[in-house]
What does this fold into?
Amino acid sequence: MKSMSVRLKIFAAMKQIAVEQGVTLPPLEDDLRLHETGFDSLGFAILVARLEDELGIDPFTMSEDASFPLTIGDLVRAYEHLPA
Amino acid sequence: MNISPRETVSLRDYLGPHLKGRTISDGRELVSLTNILGESCLGGRLSELSGRSVLLAASDQLISGLAMIEIDGVARRMLLAPHDLDAGHVSALVADAGIDAVVTDDPAQWREVGIALVVAARQPTTAAVAARTERATEWLMLTSGTTGVPKIVSHTLAGLTGAIVADGPPRAPAPTWATFYDIRRYGGLQIFLRAILSGGSMVLSEPGETVGQHLARLAARGVTHISGTPSHWRKALMSASIASFSPRYVRLSGEIADQAVLDGLQRAFPSASIGHAYASTEAGVGFAVNDGLEGFPAGMVGRSDSGVEMIVRDGTLWIRSTRTAHAYVGKDAAALRDAEGFVDTGDMVELRGERYHFVGRRGGIINVGGLKVHPEEIEAVINRHAEVRMSRARSRRSPITGAIVVADVILADAAGDGNKIRDEILSNCRASLAPYKIPAMIRFVASLEITAAGKLARHDA
It folds into this structure.
């Protein structure tokens, strides 16, 4: 169940950053748009850096043409589709 | 004082047999300064250096210091080569400074470089003739930048000693000075010159010695006055040997002295006076602050009555005084002063209430999504935590914001509760820093790299 664990790790990291940044996260569902999470670009920058340390991958630096995802589902898939 | 023709002052004017018991020592040797004018470490060949441009390239500081005393006032120029001089830079420096003589304890190596005259330097022996001051020697030093050929900076002895002379003679008894710096760099040279001008003694640092061994030697030699960078002092404060050492005066320079390191030193040395000085190879000695607080009184900026004028342009400190270097030396040398004679220090300051605080180097700014962050201001906040001994904030590349800030921290007790301390550090950061300045990650490390100049190494600057 590798994919589930990646999803849970992303959600846990987001919840931790939300606490640190004083952001109230809406329920994390696949079709939630990232701009609706309340995170600013700094929040996502921290998320990507922490996930790189935890999962060993940074899908947005590794791929030249990777565009940043629009929804939570896109974000999770960006990590799931890369080998750790 | 035996003043020479045209009243040119050289180092030998501050030495003489009437001052008893003066010494200069490193970890291996101790040499009397009382009778040094009757001796030569150049085997009596000083006269061959008259009017020449001399590269002083000895491997150890003790021979370098003795050679400086001998060569000053005789050679036209003296370029102080630090011990870690990159061999690949030698030919460019020799050409730019017009070097035509080298003084070294390794003559065989230098004969192959093609410099006309090679003079061996060794332990002093009795000199046949007493040296005489012939001219004001130009002192050349190298900047301590980390990349490329270092710049050559030109000083005079009068400029180098301006702040020392302005402070007046020290109270008796004469001090025994020591420094963590190498005396061939500006910060260390200042202390060597203070020891010579004060009529006192000098205890040099020794490569390869541990902090504990160094502190024990400082205590054994009765060191009363000592200087180093805040990084030097943070390392010293981590050593148990600090308890056996009790200097009267402790000086910090070369990096920002934050409140945590000033307080730490006052706790370690309750009876000592703690001062922090502002100086650089190019700008010379700006000022010293002895009130135990970080930063400096705002009233010091804009004044011109102390011989040192400081102004703040676009947040950066500029200095004009007789103690600044005169010029960069070399065929492609840039201007060191502006049209009005001010030197750009590259150090950024911020006015908070009645004091200016140093916030960091202009060249070391981290850009987080267009917002500017000085790593030094983050370190100052992290260092406030009682369990933190030292820290380094640095840039980490980010595909979202270009960079984010992360921090490496040395704890006083490596076995401490890291998670609790991390939360407390972050809480301190949130209380006093904007969100983009708060480290996204804090890593606990066993050590942090210190450069040869005694400063925290910053590779991402």
Summary: Residues 364 and 461 of chain B are 4 Å apart (CA to CA).
